């Protein structure tokens, strides 16, 4: 594992272009409201979260709601666009496609 600065890149598309990699080799982390506090969703970078399916999970607060940028910063200590699964201190639901990616790029 190594750290690479991506100073102004905040989206999967921007990071992919900057690092010259396919978005399939990235992992993104989204933060939503959970029943017991913030909850993370970890997805492959080229995938989108199915909010209808996510809302049906028991750990997810109803109605399904993403945290605001301010709530994200308070919950995980960084801005949206910099969130990664490594060292994340909130519960995470990891999509199977993301779980099977090797040698990936993610926020830190």
Description:
- Helices cover 23% and strands 20% of the residues.
- A 4-stranded mixed β-sheet has the order 3-2-1-4.
- The model has no long low-confidence stretch (mean pLDDT 93).
- The protein is built from 4 helices and 4 strands.
- The protein has helices at 12-19, 51-55, 69-76, 96-99; strands at 26-34, 37-44, 92-94, 105-106.
- With 108 residues, it is α/β, with parallel strands linked by helices.
Strand arrangement within the widest β-sheet reads: 3-2-1-4
Gross geometry: globular
Question: Could you say which structural class the secondary elements and strand pairing correspond to?
Answer: alpha/beta
Report the span from N to C terminus. 11 Å
Sheet-strand content, in percent, reads 15-25%
Largest sheet composition: 4 strands, mixed
SS field, number of helical segments = 4
Please tally the β strands and state the result.
4
Helix content: 10-25%
| Helix and strand pattern | HEEHHEHE
- Gyration radius, rounded: 13 Å
Low-confidence stretches: none
Average residue-wise pLDDT: 93
Which key phrases capture this entry?
single chain, about 110 residues, alpha/beta, 4 helices, about 25% helix
Blueprint of the fold:
Layout lengths: L11 H8 L6 E9 L2 E8 L6 H5 L13 H8 L15 E3 L1 H4 L5 E2 L2
Parallel strand pairs: 1-4, 2-3
Antiparallel strand pairs: 1-2
Summary, kept brief:
The chain contains 4 helices and 4 strands. The chain is α/β, with parallel strands linked by helices and 108 residues long.
